[in-house]
Specification:
The structure holds 2 protein chains of 2 kinds.
Chain A lengths: L1 H20 L1 E3 L6 E3 H6 L15 H8 L4 E4 L4 E3 L11 H12 L5 E8 L2 E8 L10 H17 L3 E7 L7 H20 L4 E9 L1 H4 L8 E4 L10 H8 L10 H6 L5 E2 L5 H12 L1
Parallel strand pairs in A: 6-7, 7-8, 8-9, 9-10
Antiparallel strand pairs in A: 1-2, 3-5, 5-6
Chain B lengths: L20 H8 L7 H8 E6 L12 E8 L2 E8 L4 H8 L6 H16 L4 E7 L6 H5 L2 H13 L5 E10 H5 L6 E5 L3 E3 L3 H9 L5 H8 L3 H6 L5 E3 L10 H19 L4 H13 L4 E3 L4
Parallel strand pairs in B: 3-4, 4-5, 5-6, 5-7, 6-8
Antiparallel strand pairs in B: 1-2, 2-3
Helix pairs in contact in B: 2-11, 4-6, 8-9
The chains are: A alpha/beta, B alpha/beta.
């Protein structure tokens, strides 16, 4: 059937070229979306409400009046305490991720204003090794929470993470304890903490600061869980229920305060802070 | 590090080859190793087991209760594996559900209320990954324990007695002192799970165990563990009584030191301890 393949090949290539900068297919409803329209809509599908992934800097712009006025721990870089090598050495993975998304590791941390109110915030970057939490993420979270205590400001963390960073072994596990310890200090100071869970938030991040908000918010349709769906499926050898581990599933089971569409996030955070500050 | 700290020597006679990391993984999982209730039976008197999280049910994969250890009233909490298929089904092979962590949290608050120290024994392959566990908030239950332990105003001593499986272990291990048996392991992910993800084959678990550096000696070098407790020659399963006595005397020694501190001092020192756990480079100061 060589005549068939010959005809198809140039067509596919042509289609891809077009899609790259003008059209994007919605992962939710399959609609072809005009990229500029999608971006004007905070990368939420106008047809089905599917939330496309956005970067940490885009969340920063979305939530804060003028971004961060001050960054915390921006000069920190991951070390390689285990000298970890699998198919690639860990430092090579770090370098590749830095080249792709920037040198802020899997989180941006800083202080800025939300509707004129000082907030110490952290925004995770899923594009940096799956948003995994190693020593740098843990240290930046501790610094932003400590800064909130020093300034009597509320704290906010936007999560997007596959969990702990395996390549840092036990040190990555200890970041769960470290972040929870910092959160205890914030709570003891009577300061509010809002956690926003975005697609996807699983593993060690869910099992530490992401689930410890005074208020836990999530974007619609976000995957949120402790174990990943594949691990659960392999363990129990059954199919998983529909909508299992979505934000909607978690809200129904009492683990989230509310689900908030991206366009309403800033207003919701602002109103919540007015109630709690 | 105290004088009792030993580097990880071979579990066999002194002159034999040191064990590989994966051999220690196998020892840590040995079915005849003493489990939490064995330690309690050998070391404690006046044991009264307390059941249930007051919210959903009692999780037999975590046991806890009041006990007298070396003349001191303490709250002991630990993962509990089973012996044989019947007991293992009851104990879910030592993998807790959220209600296990919530029972542990309730018992820790009880200890704090009456000013008693908390001793936790860690031995789990991990918190259970299942539908019910997710529905009832496995992540939230573990996260809550981490924060509660960070603020608990009484001494906490943890001993990793077998498998220290990731968040499921840490959920009862944010302690003032973390001790570890010589052939126990403590890791962010099981060697098999790590191999499946990074090598795309569970058969590479030996390589993953080497890469993860999960033995007591490794963790003492990283200062994640405060003391390594020596096991009898051949491993804990060959002499549970001697193992338990070594664990008991180490715990007692650490509690003797910790009871001197006020609640606020304990919380502040615990914070400093966990804040120090992490390795990074600062390019600004380099």
């Amino acid at each position: 059937m060589t005549w068939f393949r010959k005809e198809k090949q140039p067509l596919v290539a042509q289609k891809r070229e077009l899609a790259a900068d003008v059209w994007e297919k919605c992962e939710g409803c399959g609609a072809a979306l005009y990229v500029r329209k999608l971006e004007e809509n905070d990368r939420v599908c106008p047809d089905c409400g599917h939330h496309f992934r956005i970067s940490a800097r885009e969340y920063l712009q979305l939530l804060f009046d003028d971004g961060f006025e001050e960054e915390f721990g921006e000069s920190l870089r991951s070390a390689d305490p285990l000298e970890f090598v699998d198919s690639k050495a860990y430092p090579e993975r770090i370098e590749a991720a830095e080249a792709r998304v920037g040198a802020h590791d899997a989180i941006l941390a800083g202080a800025g204003h939300i509707d004129g109110r000082l907030v110490c915030g952290g925004i995770m970057e899923f594009g940096f090794i799956g948003g995994s939490m190693g020593s740098v993420v843990g240290e930046k979270i501790a610094r932003l929470l400590d800064a909130a205590v020093e300034r009597s400001a509320p704290a906010l963390i936007v999560s997007a993470s596959g969990g702990a960073r395996m390549q840092e072994g036990i040190f990555s596990l200890m970041q769960l304890a470290k972040s929870a310890t910092a959160l205890h200090r914030l709570a003891a100071a009577g300061l509010p903490y809002i956690s926003i869970l975005t697609h996807p938030t699983t593993g060690g991040v869910t099992a530490s600061f992401a689930m410890l908000g005074d208020v836990n918010l999530a974007e619609p349709g976000a995957l949120v869980g402790f174990a990943g769906p594949r691990v659960i499926k392999e363990t129990i050898r059954q199919d998983l229920p529909d909508a299992f581990q979505t934000a909607e599933f978690l809200e129904e089971h009492g683990m989230l305060d509310c689900i908030v569409a991206r366009q309403d996030l800033k207003q919701t955070v602002s109103t919540l802070l007015a109630h709690m500050c | 590090m105290s004088d009792e700290t030993r580097s990880g020597k071979a579990a066999g006679p002194e002159d034999s080859e040191p064990l590989s990391r994966y051999e220690r993984v196998k020892l840590a999982r040995h079915p005849d190793r003493p489990f939490t209730l064995d330690y309690i039976r050998i070391l404690c008197s006046d044991w009264i087991e307390l059941h249930g999280d007051r919210k959903f049910r009692d999780d037999p994969a975590i046991v806890g209760g009041w006990a007298t250890l070396a003349g001191r009233s303490v709250m002991i909490i630990g993962h509990q594996k089973g012996r044989g298929m019947k007991e293992n089904l009851l104990r879910n092979f030592g993998s807790p559900h959220p209600e296990g962590y919530r029972k542990a949290e309730r018992l820790m608050q009880l200890a704090a209320k009456f000013g008693r120290p908390v001793v936790t024994l860690v031995d789990t392959q991990g918190a259970y990954p299942g539908i019910g566990a997710e529905e009832r908030g496995q992540a939230e239950a573990i996260a809550r324990n981490l924060q509660v332990m960070a603020g608990l105003p009484v001494p906490i001593v943890t001993v990793i007695i077998g498998e220290g499986g990731s968040g499921g272990a840490l959920g009862i291990a944010v302690a003032d002192r973390v001790l570890m048996l010589e052939n126990a392991i403590y890791s962010v992910i099981s060697p098999e799970g790590c191999a499946a993800i990074l090598w795309r084959s569970r058969d590479r678990a030996e390589d993953a165990a080497e890469a993860l550096k999960l033995t007591a000696t490794d963790l003492a070098e990283f200062a994640v563990v405060d003391e390594v407790i020596r096991e009898p020659n051949g491993g804990a399963h060959l002499d549970p009584d001697a193992t338990a006595l070594a664990v008991g005397s180490a715990v007692e020694r650490h509690l003797d030191e910790l009871v001197e501190f006020s609640g606020d001092e304990l919380i502040e020192r615990r914070r400093e301890k966990f804040y120090a756990m992490g390795r990074w480079e600062d390019t600004a100061s380099a």
